[in-house]
Amino acid sequence: MKGFPEDFLWGGAVAANQVEGAYLEDGKGLTTVDLLPQGERRFEIMLGDLKGFTPDPDTFYPSHEGIDFYHTYKEDIALFAEMGFKALRLSIAWTRIFPTGEESEPNEAGLAFYDSVFDELRKYNIEPVVTMAHFDVPVALVEKYGGWRDRKLVELFETYAKTILTRYKDKVRYWMTFNEINMLLHLPYIGAGLVFKEGENKKKIQYQAAHHQLVASALAVKACHEIIPNAMCGCMLAAGATYPYTPDPEDVWDAVQKDRDTFFFIDVQARGAYPGYAKRMLREQGLFPDMEPGDEDILEAHTVDYLGFSYYSSRATSTDPEVNAQAAQGNVFGSVPNPYLKSSEWGWAIDPKGLRITANQLYERYQKPLFIVENGLGAVDQPTDDFVVEDDYRIAYLQAHVKEMKEAILDGVELLGYTSWGPIDLVSASTGEMKKRYGYIYVDRNNDGSGSLKRAKKKSFAWYKQVIETNGEDLSEGGQSI
């Protein structure tokens, strides 16, 4: 009943394709995000409208340079250590290990890079929390097989998973298979490397790809348990409770259905079987995926050890067409405005209480340890000439969410840790921008790729350091009420 446990894993979270840069260095192959430009075309491609498989030399792709973490990781990790990080969530780029996804031998330069990163983290006693696939599929596999629509990717992903598990078995104890696996239903290109042709049944392809990822995830969990018996292997979803807009039973039922779009994947990964509501929907709509003999046994036998989730906002839903016409476009889940909540500059509802609600909801449903692996405020920071950023708004956002996280623990929710999103400014996944900043560390880089890449501590840097030092007890530095 004291709140945060003594071994609570405070830290931050990044993704390879949003920070590393060096997109073709040391033998790395093209990954799907390397074909995402800034601007309107970015969102069209994320929905599955890719026109070609090579970068356009006249187009700016923000992932190609990122924030140059590939070359600055020692400097950046030292800053994380100064804040007192206990953990850093990061991902391995599949194409650094297998550039096309089909090589018979892994790329040693790619393996060595992550060896160096993990060694640097261990130097400061920072626990790596590693995501195997964070929105990156080898472009060669999209071009040849159509991404995760093809069963071949299950075999190739299993090889990749076994390779990295074996290589880093003495360096990494916390693993996750797919980042925000439910995003496959909302942004199918980044979720599964899906590119659609005219006339295709998109939903059928998405659920087939989802089945392949679920089988691949189970096989990766199996490999993790065999190769690193003392490790924990989890799954990860984009979470956020859905509220009915009114007490109208139709709105309430619609909210239940919207939440099930999220729960479907985790029901399989945590419970080991397709839930009844999903089977009914898939059969009635003609979307049931093709399965191979033994698939159901694989899913049942190899469930995850914990559940990682991102939380940025809650959602609201209505069956009233007039209300739905106001749905916010800044959020891929299409939430209608909640009149009781304020929104971020990108239209995401700011709902700290929703984090407590979501954590309780997930823990009661799965009875497995939870890990909040993404949470934060994307905002436009206005630095002074010497890169001083007074980000009281970010401190206020995080204060409120950490308070509710503690309340969830007091409710009985088992939380392993909290890695806030983007502890250092990085490329936004949804927009490709740099101006949508999350970090405690400012990076001098602009949307057009200009800037010195100089790092500077924001006001929130000292605040988060204090939070970690006091194990979440002192949240008082700076900030303002929301």
TrEMBL record:
One GO term (biological process): carbohydrate catabolic process
Origin: domain of life: Bacteria
InterPro entries in UniProt: GH, GH_1_N_CS, Glyco_hydro_1, Glyco_hydro_1_AS
EC identifiers of the protein: 3.2.1.86
Signal peptide (UniProt feature, chain positions): none
A cellular component annotation (GO) from this entry: cytosol
Hydrolase is among the record's keywords: yes
Active site per UniProt: E374 (nucleophile)
Catalytic class of the enzyme: hydrolase
Protein name listed in UniProt: 6-phospho-beta-glucosidase
Species whose genome carries this gene: Paenalkalicoccus suaedae
Gene: ascB
